[in-house]
Amino acid sequence: MYEVRIYKKAQKEIKRLPGIHQKAIIETLADIQEDPSLGKSLARELSGKFSYKIGVYRIIYKINKKEKIVQVVTVGHRANVYNN
Q1: Dist. CA 65–CA 76, nearest whole Å
Q2: Would the keyword Nucleotide-binding be found if you checked this record's keyword annotation (predicted)?
């Protein structure tokens, strides 16, 4: 099992979402904690990061396999999240 660390920016982004979506994201983070490879590997300027889809929202995170840590970088709507 991996430790999940959520950047302050991502915490603020989660708090701004409607309650039902917040709950879905938190539940999904538990799944990612068990198996971080569930997400899709990203390319280009986001190389080294992963994306996990939850409806129209995305969780962008990095995996540190050595230390068994998942770092949640950003969370947001699919139209905006890749531009951050």
Answers
A1: 25
A2: no
Domains of the chain: 3-83 (3.30.2310.20)
Closest CA to 21 of 48, 54, 45: 54
Query: pLDDT tens track of the chain, all 84 residues?
Result: 999 999 999 999 999 998 899 999 999 999 999 999 999 999 998 899 999 999 999 999 999 999 999 999 999 999 988 876
The 8-class DSSP code of residue 39 comes to S
The token pair that represents 9 in the structure block = 């920016």
> ∠ CA(45), CA(49), CA(50), 5° rounding?
125
Is the backbone of residue 13 left (phi > 0), alpha (psi -120 to 50) or beta?
alpha
